[in-house]
Amino acid sequence: SVMLDLIKEDKDFTVIFDYVCDVETHLKDGFEFHQIKTHEPNFGSYSSGKLIKKESKQSTGSILGKLYALNKDAIDNIKLVFVSNVPLQIGKKKCNYGEFSLAGLPNAEKINIESALKRELGISHVELSRVFYIHTPFNLREPEFVIKGKLLDRFSEVKNCQPRNARALYRLIVETVQAKACYEYSQ
Predict the structure, then answer these.
(1) For the chain (length 187 residues), average pLDDT per consecutive 10?
(2) Pick from 125, 68, 132: which is nearest to 102 by CA?
(3) Sign of CA pseudo-dihedral 71, 187, 5, 36
């Protein structure tokens, strides 16, 4: 979906499927890093507390800390995106479907996140305006239906026509991604 959006915007880009941050997008004028987490519907939602909590006892950091570490050196023109199929909960309100900037959190939650990231990463400044949460509906049991639908939708938007053989287009993309994904190793 990210690639198809960039094609629609007529931007030059390179997409890298990465071991740590899942999807990297290298643009002429910056970088985007997408961390993707999928859950079963009974997971509930993410809160700012869950984003800064260590993932497990073996983990060295939080979900948000691992993502923000990509900006530890305060690189200009960087966008850090946490993508999940569950909503972000802010107080009693759930942010359903779409993109939300963490800079829009209430002050108490921003201060809590900034303090946790500073401690975890050993940095003195945190810029939450670079960090976004995207809640996307994604069918975990049959993801190919969502992918096919988005692919056909984006293709018709970009090319102003339907693909001649939608199944072949889908197969080509899936096979290419699977072939490239087999080269993913921890450095």
Answers:
(1) 67 76 83 86 85 80 89 78 89 81 92 94 91 80 75 81 84 76 52
(2) 132
(3) negative
